[in-house]
Amino acid sequence: MDISTLLQYNACDISDALLRLNVTSGGVLPDISLRGQRPTKQEAFAAPASTVLFVPKGATPPPSAPQANIPKGSHWADLAVPDTFVVIQQPRGQTNAVLGGIMALRMKQLKARGIVVDGRVRDVGELRDTGMPIWSKGLSTVGAGASSSPHAVQVPLDIDGTVVRPGDIIFSDSNNGVVCVPQELVSQVAELLPGLVEADDRVKLEVQRGTSVQEAFKKHRGKA
């Protein structure tokens, strides 16, 4: 599975291809913002996903939760898988962070490629200092221990309708956001992308010449 082809495109292109392949969410991980490195131009990264699931501290996990699998005496950040994009899910409605500077630094030392948090982070300056693309839905000043407990690693996560499984490809685009590509669809996405982008370029040229969007779409997107 060669993911380098994907890096020639942006996150919007990737989502367009996934929609053509009937991935109804388009693979988007919605409502997240870049907290880590601040590039001067658009930068794209892609790497297989590894995952971390947090649950409410002191509460019994719901029946739908996977079995706990973090070894006793281990810190979840020490379990980061090299050369992966670490995707972390926090319980909804919490105001504490689940990622801070120390954990991000540890994962960088373990050669993580980036981090996406479906939840909150803190120590934003330290996150930037790692040089990694780090994304989150929100910010906090409060550490994870206030309300969250790490529960399991390398388990599927459902993030607002997009399921992220270990090994799926996380595509990070500093301008447009983050998309998850199911690993079994990477080759099909790569095959679709050139035609989709070429069709959009033709549509833009038509619109610049004064053609209506409806006419341009009918003429070119139907052939993509």
TrEMBL record:
Q: Specify whether Membrane is a keyword of the entry.
A: no
GO molecular-function annotation terms?
4-hydroxy-4-methyl-2-oxoglutarate aldolase activity; metal ion binding; oxaloacetate decarboxylase activity
Q: Which residues form the signal peptide?
A: none
Cofactor field: Mg(2+)
Q: Which UniProt keywords apply?
A: Magnesium, Metal-binding
Top-level taxon of origin:
Eukaryota
Q: Which residues bind substrate?
A: 100-103, 122-123
Q: Name one Pfam family in it.
A: RraA-like
Q: Does the keyword Magnesium apply?
A: yes
- Which SUPFAM superfamilies does the annotation name? RraA-like
What is the official name of this protein in its record? 4-hydroxy-4-methyl-2-oxoglutarate aldolase
Q: In which organism is this protein found? A: Ceratocystis fimbriata CBS 114723
